[in-house]
Write a structure and sequence with these properties.
Largest sheet: 10 strands, mixed
Oligomer: single chain
CATH superfamily of the largest domain: ANL, N-terminal domain
CATH topology of the largest domain: Rossmann fold
CATH architecture of the largest domain: 3-Layer(aba) Sandwich
Radius of gyration: 22 Å
Distance between the termini: 54 Å
Length: 494
């Protein structure tokens, strides 16, 4: 396959009311003159406050590695969507064979599953044999982490940590190898080149409104990225965007919706906005596009799979087939779903060897097209993405705060305070009262959660723009509910 797979605050009674510290950012943007002369790019990170800024360092020491991968791989990556379908499939099958062999030999949870199913890597001979590979679920990987699902060829300090909860509220810790991060970084450059219709250039600035910055803020000073914490209220985000004047903006749909009333402050420099991680309708994106004056396109992605599919300028979703293999299965038979009918998304991450995701049940529902659109891009297509919904929180002024932002505040709390929760629910009981219900995971104790709950209160207070009290409630199990459990919810009178 033509990818370079090189790849605390105390809260004695469980409540804490946080003050609202001043917002901060790291440094001013690098000038065009500096960029032209190859000067070292400066950090462009805007955190929600000084007291909540994590000890986060970008991979500046690895800049040479990113540049080296870009020199070898960027041209290959840019050509991949236009390869003949037969060549794309041959590369995917070859990579699937490599990953299955690796998983069978090095990853106990896969070896046990494959042996129990009577499946051997030698059974994967042609494209249709991919359907013989047993499925794996989030619950299985949670139970296997880390000893049974992370390759021992890597030292723990050499792996990149992240985590996934999505709409399930079950926390899956994830480890990603360095080579996968490098390859994914270059594929990110390609993403915005494709979605911008070729406008994206090395000297343009991309700004992420997100949880934490990407691992690298540039590729050797080119393709520079800025970061704005999505816990910052939209009026201040708009101010930072006006200062930065980015050409491309990447963020949650709900964050974009909150920014649209401030569009005149920051939109003049933009030529593209890309939404991700939450469901949004085409009608919503068209309306945001009208108000911003630039195309608003979608990115379908997950922590487990990285980029899954990109909405192109013609409105068609194409699967990123050098980063992921996608199956869509009938939820009853678990056989390939009929095009035109919604099915369960099952993904294989083609980049990450440290903690493989092979035929992983993603949990979303998607629909494949009955008749694909004519396109120069030969990646397969998705007709619609049918899953993902959660409740927004509401502040005293009536502003809705995206479920994704609340989820990110929860991630930040766990990350900053080094706690692990097997499952959680963050429930708004009133404008200024939130309950954090949780089941402990790993070696985390109730005392650690209680001691750190003030940090979650501080983060949520920044999101809602007024003090918020947080009550921690440890549980042995969550009450059974029909349907998909929503970990971000409102339980308050309107």
């Amino acid at each position: 396959m033509d990818t370079l797979n090189l790849r605390t605050n105390d809260a004695s009674d469980g409540y804490e009311v946080a003050a609202l510290p001043a917002l901060v950012h790291d440094e001013q943007p690098v000038s065009a003159a500096d960029a032209a002369t190859g000067a070292e790019p400066r950090s462009l990170m805007f955190w929600e406050s000084e007291s909540t800024r994590p000890a986060f360092k970008l991979g500046s020491s690895e800049t040479a590695g990113v540049v080296s991968v870009a020199e070898k791989y960027l041209d290959v990556a840019m050509k991949h969507p236009y390869l003949p379908v037969s060549q794309i499939r041959a590369q995917q099958l070859a990579r699937m064979r490599e990953l299955v062999e690796l998983a069978y030999n090095e990853i106990p949870v896969y070896r046990a599953k494959y042996q129990a199913a009577g499946f051997s890597p030698s059974d994967l001979r042609d494209w249709d044999d991919i359907q013989k590979i047993p499925l794996i679920t989030k619950a299985e990987l949670i139970g296997a982490f880390p000893d049974q699902c992370v390759s021992k060829r890597y030292q723990p300090d050499d792996l990149y940590p992240t985590r996934s909860s999505g709409s399930s509220g079950q926390t899956l810790l994830i480890r990603v190898d360095h080579e996968a991060i490098l390859t994914d970084t270059i594929q990110g450059v390609r993403q915005f080149a494709l979605q911008s219709g070729g406008k994206y250039r090395a000297e343009h600035l991309l700004t992420h409104v997100y949880t934490v910055p990407w691992w690298f803020d540039s590729v050797g000073g080119k393709y520079q990225t800025a970061f704005i914490s999505n816990l910052i209220p939209p009026a201040r985000v708009a101010q930072h965007l006006r200062e930065l004047a980015p050409e491309v903006l990447s963020l949650y749909p709900s964050n974009l919706e909150a920014l649209v009333p401030h569009a005149e402050e920051f939109s003049s420099s933009l030529y593209l906005a890309v939404t991700h991680s939450e469901h949004s309708t085409r009608a919503s994106r068209r309306e945001w596009s009208r108000k911003l004056g630039v195309p608003v396109l979608d990115e379908y992605s997950s922590e487990e799979a990285t980029r899954i599919a990109l909405e192109m300028p013609n409105g068609v979703y194409h699967v990123c087939e050098d980063s992921v293999h996608l199956d869509v299965l009938d939820p009853e038979t678990l056989q390939p779903q009929v095009p035109g009918q919604s099915g369960i998304a099952v993904i294989t991450n083609l980049l990450n060897e440290a903690m493989p995701f092979i035929r992983y049940v993603q949990g979303d529902y998607v629909t494949l097209p009955k008749k694909p659109h004519r396109s120069d891009i030969n990646w397969s297509q998705i007709a619609s993405i049918d899953g993902r919904s959660n409740d927004a929180f509401i502040n005293r002024q009536g502003r809705k705060i995206a479920a994704g932002s609340i989820l990110d505040a929860t991630y930040r709390w766990m990350f900053d305070c080094n706690i692990h929760l097997a499952q959680f629910e963050i429930v708004q009981k009133d404008y200024a009262l939130v309950e954090a219900r949780y089941i402990l995971g790993g070696s985390t104790t109730d005392a650690q959660v209680s001691a750190s709950i003030g940090h979650l209160g501080e983060l949520l207070s920044l999101c809602l723009e007024h003090p918020v009290a947080v009550k921690a409630q440890g549980l042995d199990s969550f009450p059974h509910r029909t349907g998909k459990r929503r970990p971000i919810r409102r339980e308050m009178a309107q």
